[in-house]
Amino acid sequence: xxxWFSSSAASVNIDEKIAQATSESIPxxxxxxxxxxxxxxxxxxxxxxxxxxxRSLKKRFMNKKENPNTQKSSLKLIDFxxxxxxxxxxxxxxxxxxxxxxxxxxxxxxxxxxxxxxxLELIQSW
Length: 126
Prior knowledge:
mainly alpha
């Protein structure tokens, strides 16, 4: 039987799902779309709190600085969730907590150029 308060159980798995969707084994910085859809559904249905999802996605991107492909796949997943996760998620993504680290990262000289261009394209489209 499902509970109204089951968000904590789903939240525990969001990091795992995000890692699965953005696995290093997926070539060319792509994502596992089936898992991405599952993540977006969890966010849209509020089984995962939008703030928790935002923080988990940001953490995945920021922790993979040494791997441009994983950074690109993390960005693709963020974009996918923005487009499919609902307005409540978009509000979290537009927060200073989410965007400020990306702005700081854009000023780093060692940021991969492809990742930098992709971040700028996505921010402009968001």
